[in-house]
Amino acid sequence: MSTGPPLFNVPNTKRSNPNKLPNLSIPVPPVDTNHNPHPQPRKLPPIDFLKVNGSYSFTPDTISPSAAGQVRPSPDGYGGLTPELKTPNMLLNPSDASLNKDIADLTPEDWNVIANTNQIMELSKLGEGNGGSVSKCVLKSNPKSKVFALKLINTDPNPNIQKQIIRELQYNRSCDSPNIVKYYGTFMVEKQSMIGIAMEYMGGRSLDAIYKRVIEIDPTNRINEKVLGKMALSVLNGLNYLHQQRIIHRDIKPSNILLDSQGNVKLCDFGVSGEVVNSLATTFVGTQYYMAPERIMGKPYTVTCDIWSLGLTMLEVATCKFPFQGTGSGGSDDLANLGPIELLSLILEYEPKLQDIPQEEIYWSDSFKNFISYCLKKNSDERPSPRQMLGHPWCVGQQSVQVRMDKFVKRLWGDLE
């Protein structure tokens, strides 16, 4: 039986001109199998991402028809914190059983009481948008307890829809992957008709904030390809885990990929049905920038839609600008001048690619460029699944590269709490 053409066609050649990667490179110690907290650093050998051994055949990954009803897309948008949640003068009753629980062990009933009796204290604002905000918080009863992120979402006032949202978001608590943000609880803030989501605090911030910080430090700088490799691997592992759970993320973009203070990369914002997404206060215009071409043409979501969005995300983070920016005569103002129809047409017609910038001495490996090109296959039938992309030669090569992601985060943000 024919296995079809090779899945990843990466030239088995070396560049005569060595790549000059961006200068956010961090020397790292070797992996210590004895768990020595102070391993001796060593100089890493050069990695040739262009050496390819063997071939890769394409066998589409699909979700079985019986699982179609379990596919859960993602919401987007933040709600603003209410005055009640900000007021610092109301503490938990010492007899409350939730005082003795870890945040991860609080039940939905615990969270409902905590949220509606003003027992959450905001430490700082993490982000705001048209739909509201997300904040860094602790429980007032124990300020030394685990810090968490609190997102509040404006939603439909219909009680039945609110219950459906909470019920579906509660599923996120069952997800257990090092590449998925932990969800602690979902609840209704009754006075404001807002959905609250308590989740793992990610101090390293989003890829969106990270690449903007990189060019803030040095406009000629870019994130090192080794660091990008760890980011891509983590996202693919997270997507592969979700796929195994019969979940399609449906909202992969830089702002939904987060790093913690140790540099671990995790996905957030997934887990509700399409009907529920329509009832949330979402920033749809921002989301459609990352929409796969087949979705624009009205075809159903598949796991390869997430791969398209990952390709655009990695291209944006590598180049420090949105891939469709500056594709017309309007330069960097193109997106602002485009209407929804023009933007969707641009996504269908334009083919974004990762390119070197010789005048700035920025070069990327051919293998990384090939990785991006496979993510951005216009034909969804030719676009690999997350599991298949983990077998791409660039990903395979990145698995053996050691990167101190904690030092990368510290380089950007300094010491984090």
TrEMBL record:
Pfam families: Pkinase (PF00069)
Location of the Protein kinase domain: 120-395
Annotated transmembrane regions: none
Highest taxon, organism lineage: Eukaryota
Bias (Polar residues) ranges: 10-22
Swiss-Prot/TrEMBL GO biological process terms: cell integrity MAPK cascade; filamentous growth; positive regulation of calcium-mediated signaling
Protein residues bound to ATP: 151
Record keywords, A-Z: ATP-binding, Kinase, Nucleotide-binding, Serine/threonine-protein kinase, Transferase
Region Disordered, annotated ranges: 1-41
Cellular component terms per the entry's GO annotation: cytoplasm; division septum
GO MF assignments: ATP binding; MAP kinase kinase activity; protein serine/threonine kinase activity
PANTHER family xrefs: DUAL SPECIFICITY MITOGEN-ACTIVATED PROTEIN KINASE KINASE DSOR1-LIKE PROTEIN, MITOGEN-ACTIVATED PROTEIN KINASE KINAE MKK2
Family note: Belongs to the protein kinase superfamily. STE Ser/Thr protein kinase family. MAP kinase kinase subfamily.
UniProt-recorded name of the protein: Pkinase-domain-containing protein
Record organism: Suhomyces tanzawaensis NRRL Y-17324
